[in-house]
Amino acid sequence: MHLLRSIVLLLTLGVLPLAAMAADAPAPEKVRALLQMLADPEVQGWIEQQRSGAVAPNASVALADG
So what's the pLDDT on residue 27? Predict the structure, then answer.
């Protein structure tokens, strides 16, 4: 049982540095672009409208034209 605990401990200690390196890796460009878009006040307003059920006039015209 002591051997099993030692093996688990060694494996855990070996994985921790790998997890830390992955967390420090920069976000891909597409993720950065998405986060910038989500921070845009216009986009936030649109998202809020969608959540509340309000539809922008342009959206209904675009749907009708299909």
Answer: 77
Over residues 14-43, the pLDDT tens digits come to 665 666 666 677 778 998 999 999 999 999
38 contacts 44 by C-beta, under 8 angstroms? yes
Question: What's the rounded Cα separation, in Å, for the pair 24 and 33?
Answer: 18
Report the length, in residues, of the chain: 66
DSSP string computed for the chain: -HHHHHHHHHHHHHHHHHHHHHHHSPPPHHHHHHHHHHHSHHHHHHHHHHHHT---HHHHHHHHH-
In this predicted structure, what is the pLDDT of residue 24?
A: 72
28: phi then psi, degrees, rounded to nearest 5: -60, 155
